[in-house]
Amino acid sequence: MPAEENIVCVKCTSVLDRTTIGGVEVDICPQCGGIWLDRGELEKLGAKDNSELDTLRSALGVDETKAPPIPSDHTSPCPVCEGSLHEHQLGNIQVDICDSCRGIWLDKGEFDQALAVIKEKGLPVELILSLANSVDD
Ligand SMILES: [Zn+2]
Ligand SMILES: [Zn+2]
Asked: Which of 9, 11, 74, 137 has the fewest other C-beta atoms within 10 Å?
């Protein structure tokens, strides 16, 4: 296990707040409301009760007055490993996924949409993405 290091926000460089939701450790940006999920965590959160997820939603629903993060159309370095984040289409949203550790960065507001996609498909993110790539329209 890596040392407990502070993870820095991909979009606004604030230090992320680590919080545990139903036993899943997530890292939330207090500034822009983005969230970092290690591989498999989105699926775990998808299995949680709404009451537990509400805790997360309220943690994400920070400071509406702050400007939204700048959408990135370029790759950014992964906050936890040596890899870099690439955008992938997940349902109607673009999510940033590390090409190395497969962690996922979700901008503010993307969490529920991403969750809706995996619940609707009933598949893990990785599988949804590979299916989307194989049937490219
Ligand atoms: Zn941020
Ligand atoms: Zn990574």
From this structure: 137
Considering the domain boundaries, does residue 126 fall inside one? yes
Amino acid identity, residue 77?
Answer: P
**CA-CA distance, 15 to 24, in Å (whole number)?**
19
Which ligand does the CA of 97 lie closest to? 2
Residues around the ion ligand 2 (C-beta < 5 A): 78, 81, 83, 98, 100-101
Asked whether the beta carbons of 81 and 98 are under 8 A apart, the reply is yes
Cβ(9)–Cβ(70) under 8 Å?
no
Residue labelled with tokens 């619940």: 119
Its pTM stands at: 0.85
Q: Find the helix packing angle between 125-134 and 110-121, rounded to 10°.
A: 80
Structure confidence by residue, pLDDT tens digits, 93-125: 999 999 999 999 999 889 999 999 999 999 999
Domain residue limits at 39: 17-134
Determine the distance separating the centroid of ligand 2 and the alpha carbon of 102, expressed in angstroms.
6
**Residue partners of 130: CB distance under 8 A and separation at least 6:** none
